[in-house]
Amino acid sequence: MTYPASMPLIAVPCDVRLFENYTWHATPDTYLNALVRVSKATPVLLPAMAGEIDFETVLGRIDGVMLTGSVSNVHPDRYGVPPSVAHEPFDPARDRLTETLIMKAIEAGVPLLAICRGHQELNVAFGGTLVPEVQEIEGRMDHRAIKHQEQRERFAIRHDVMIEPEGHLETIVGKGPIRVNSLHRQGIDRLGSGLDVEATAPDGTIEAVSVRDAKTFAMGVQWHPEYWAESDAASRAIFEAFAEACRARAERSA
Ligand SMILES: N[C@@H](CCC(=O)NCCCC(=O)O)C(=O)O
After folding, report:
1. Mean per-residue pLDDT over the chain, rounded
2. DSSP letters of 185-236?
3. I need a surface site. Which of 56, 109, 115, 236 has the fewest CB within 10 A?
4. Where does the sequence pass through the membrane (predicted)?
């Protein structure tokens, strides 16, 4: 595989998982594949060890940050809601890492793409709140993953998303609507202050946001463009636009 001369380094915060008697800091390969194959970037996994990380040094050496999806949910303490079983499972180490990383990346002008759990983390980092189970709210769709053994089926395209006219996302994917997949229970309730809505589902669920006044690409999407980044035009466009911002930063830092 050949890479362009300027190959951005993109930090990907890990989840913490327990298996085979070890604690792993890990991330799914679908996100890494999209970064390598479509963004033409090199992913750099960041362990969920917020207390041990010098964020300024890391952000000075990388060209972008991508937050992945995960079955875990942002701990409700982070947005002032009492925890319940409905909010579980949690990953407090990832919460600690991403909360600081998001704000410091935005401040430093490091491009940020936040997917699914990442989109929810972005909203919470900006003071927003989440609903624990979107499908339990009257009039809302069921956004959860379908039960199926095959990942291709679970990540199959499910519903429309309307793109906000004249927003940043419209410049990337066009006027829309676009068709997206859906594998989440939670969703944005109160929008974080300083975020703009970029796309919504037919039931009003906020599907994409951007950081107002960001120095560079800073966007969250509730769906999973990584899964179809090689074959779906809108998914590819998101990873290419993110890569372009990361390459611009890499060239500035060279
Ligand atoms: N846990 C949150 C975030 C959802 C998310 O990031 N899903 C990723 C896919 C997980 C899967 O394979 O089912 C929520 O549920 O809202």
Report:
1. 96
2. S-EESSPPTTEEEEEE-TT--EEEEEETT-SS-EEEESS-TTTTTTT-HHHH
3. 56
4. none
Put simply, whether the predicted model's pTM sits higher than 0.90 gets the answer: yes
Q: Which residue matches tokens 């969250």?
A: 220
Can you name the CATH fold of 9-253?
A: Rossmann fold (3.40.50)
Closest CA to 48 of 6, 11, 103, 85: 11
Mutation choice for ligand 1 from 184, 207, 222, 227, CB with most ligand atoms inside 8 A: 184
Taking the C-alpha atoms of residue 139 and residue 244, their distance in angstroms, rounded to an integer, is: 38
- Name residue 131's beta-bridge partners: 187
Summarize pLDDT for 84-103 with one digit per residue, the tens: 998 999 999 999 999 999 99
Q: Does the pLDDT value for residue 195 go beyond 80?
A: yes
Q: Decide if 14 is catalytic.
A: no
C-alpha 164/C-alpha 87 separation (Å) is: 30
Residues in contact with ligand 1 by the CB-under-6-Å rule are: 69-73, 116-117, 145, 183-186
Whether complex ipTM tops 0.95: yes
Catalytic residue status for 87? no
